[in-house]
Amino acid sequence: MATPAQPPERDFKERFNHQDMAIERGKDSGALTRREVRRLQREQDKVRRLMDDLRREAYSPREAQRRIDWRLDWIDRRIYELSTNSEVAPHFRPNSPPPPPPR
Fold first, then answer.
1. Where along the chain is composition biased (Basic and acidic residues) (predicted)?
2. Domain boundaries in the chain?
């Protein structure tokens, strides 16, 4: 029995790296809140688990590639949407007065 072909790991690794850099840029610039960063990182973890599941369940490489690409595309869109929404990380609010001192 032949072993099933594996999806192209290198392409996925490059996409994860690109997404990680985009998430870091958004966090550093204040475009992404901590909550949004955690949410995006959890989605990436889900895709990694999906990759393991597809490999373990011996999906065809074409079907595995399609499913993983769809999820990574979705994360790319979420990174863009969350980076351009009106929420700004609290420590990056330009021209805002400092918070009141605790009582």
1. 8-38
2. 33-84
